[in-house]
Amino acid sequence: MEKNLPEIVFGSSEKKISQRISRAVKSGRLKKLLPRIYTSNLSDFPEKIIKRNLYLILGKMFPKAILSHRTAIEGKPAEGNTIFLTYKYTKKVTLPGFTVRLMKGPEPISDDTPFLDSLYMSSLPRAFLENMQPARRRGSAAKSLPKSVIEHKLDKLCQIHGEDKLNQIRDRANKIATQLEMNNEFKKLNEIISAILRTSTIRNLSADSAKARAAGRPYDQDRLELFQQLFAELKQADLPVFNETMVTPDEIQYQAFFEAYFSNYIEGTEFEIQEARDIVFKNRIPEMRPEDAHDILGTYRIVSDPGEMKCIPKSPDNFLELIRSRHSTLLASRPDKSPGEFKEKPNQAGQTYFVMPELVYGTLIKSFEIYQSLDYGLARSLFMMFIITEIHPFVDGNGRIARVMMNAELANSGLSKIIIPTVYREDYLLALRALSRRRKAESFIRMMCRAQKFSSEINFSNYDSALRLLERCNAFKDHNAARLILPSRL
User: Fold this and answer.
1) Which of 121, 143, 165 is the last residue of a domain?
2) Distance separating alpha carbons of residues 40 and 407, to the nearest angstrom
3) At what angle do helices 441-456 and 378-391 cross, to 10 degrees?
4) Of 22, 87, 173, 441, which residue is 20 to 30 A from 416 by alpha carbon distance?
């Protein structure tokens, strides 16, 4: 035997190799792991060794076996560490830490994929056919996934790759069904795909995502799971209460001005503060930047209207109508950005793609259902802001509309609005990314609570004094040059 033995050594019919293995076992360099399978790892438990080398071992034990049924769909052992293999005979085999269910069935066909030496993996069409077979739960897991899970996986494929993908799976499954003696299974699969694609009157679906697509309202399941996680965090959070004290006409208009200014600045519409003041209060539109100026004006028109800012959605249809109406006002001067209309092409930020256009409507509706279960005030406002940011339903103006909808929730509850000053922009964006990409809701909630505390401490009764206080708090500075200071800390 070689001096450095591999972790797994298989028995051999060759006499010389067999003798070397025997000597290595006697000398303590190898120990028996399974019949005709040895290991040079003398310290780890057998379960760990087998887990690391599972498919290599299965290929040697059951050559030309097929990882099939739910194992082929999930790509991993089922609950109870159960693996399902289609093989020459039916048998239950117990390995340390794993249960292998061998099921007598057809050999690999041309569609099936070679997988680690002597194993195969059922092709996707074959795997879906296999999962249409009735299965009794034996011990820890059944060989077939529940119908609702299969529906959801088919809907996910449709969401990512389009309807053509489901048609390809169905066409190929139809061709191999006779060869595999699975014609009854194909009938069941065909019914599900036809229902999802709305090409039949049968609507006997179980998964919510598949039902939504069949009803013409498909949604982004991954985003819904993220929103549900934020919902749970907001329900448990001990949120502060900062009541609104800016109620006079002057206070409302000056607060709205700075809100509109910072909300546009954060999106790249940058003006000096005096320029922005002239745009809003003197209607002086710069000749070289009329559209940017009207962006600030559009935002100001919404957030300075006390009646408008106390309107919150009461129903799913009202929700869609409200965000489209506000978006139409916000980008009225930019017809190329389709004001008031949901996007028709995918949009992205860096490597992150937002919700696909065909899923926007359904995802907004499902998100509203979650929103309704939150308490009025800060919890609803943060949830509302995040879902619009994350869905990105419009070509442009999504961040501004998200903050408008957030502050409308706060205004409706008599709470202080949230202004994100320039110096706090990076904290704001990093917290959004942490929630979107790593599902870290705590830092997002903490950051927004601090922003609300900052905003609640600014007295907007006089423009000049408010401006001086914001300057002392570093509100207009770049995040690399300064940090946000709360007025109460000055």
Assistant:
1) 143
2) 64
3) 120
4) 441
**By residue range, what is the domain housing residue 63?**
50-143
Over residues 374-401, the mean pLDDT reads 97
Q: Which residue from 398, 477, 482 is spatially nearest to 436, judged by alpha carbons?
A: 398
Q: Collect all residues with Cβ–Cβ distance below 8 Å to 427 and sequence separation of at least 6.
A: 447, 479, 484
Whether residues 361 and 229 fall in one domain: yes
Q: What is the pLDDT of the chain when averaged over all its residues? A: 93
- CA-CA distance, 402 to 211, in Å (whole number)? 28
User: Residue 241 corresponds to which amino acid?
Assistant: V
Q: 58 vs 34, 51, 152, 355, CA distance in Å?
A: 11, 11, 30, 41
Same domain, 188 and 242: no
The mean pLDDT of 457-472, rounded to a whole number, is 97
User: How far is it, in rounded angstroms, from Cα 98 to Cα 67?
Assistant: 15
Residue 1: pLDDT over 50: no
Tell me: do 207 and 239 sit in the same domain.
no
Three-state DSSP at 125 gives helix
- Residue 55: helix, strand or coil by DSSP? helix
Q: Calculate helix-pair angle for 398-412, 249-265, nearest 10 degrees.
A: 150
Which H or E run includes 254? helix 249-265
pLDDT surpassing 60 at residue 347? yes
Same domain, residue pair 38 and 177: no
**Same domain, yes or no: 246 and 381:** yes
**Domain count of the fold of the chain:** 4
